[in-house]
Amino acid sequence: MTGVDLSIGISDEDIGPFLGHPQIMQKVELRKETVITVTRKKSNNFWDVMYNGPSESSEFEGKAADALRMGARFGVEYGGTTTAKISDGSIWMYDALEKSSTTTICYGYRVHLRLKATSSGEVYCLKNAVLTGHTVTLNADGVTEETLEFTSSVAAGTVAGNTFDVALTSVAEL
Known about the structure:
The chain is mainly beta.
């Protein structure tokens, strides 16, 4: 691992001008967005396959043709079946209920970022993240790095005590 970046932002929309007023009256928050970008020295094609595919069609929730070209960008989902499969991204996460549950969501990736490695340290937890970017950097001296970007609009949080939040996301959190 050569780098980790945590970006927290808000998408907003300008309202106005209305009724002949030339200035923008106000901004409305559309959604919060959290992005964790991970960079490492390239040693194999694992991240390439995660982002670009191919995925095993029997393990893919969707068309076999999509499994060959999409990879695991959207993580896992139950999508009404009894076993988790690699998501094709065509289902809204609110509809990706876990098995027979009506209150918990199984969709995407759960990314944990340890902020302090002590017994009282904090762990930042990004829930229901999807892969939104993958880049490979080539240099003249032959050093190669690759970056993978996880993005989520579900509210992230921290867990104290150097533990991990592994509970499924509740419908109420969306």
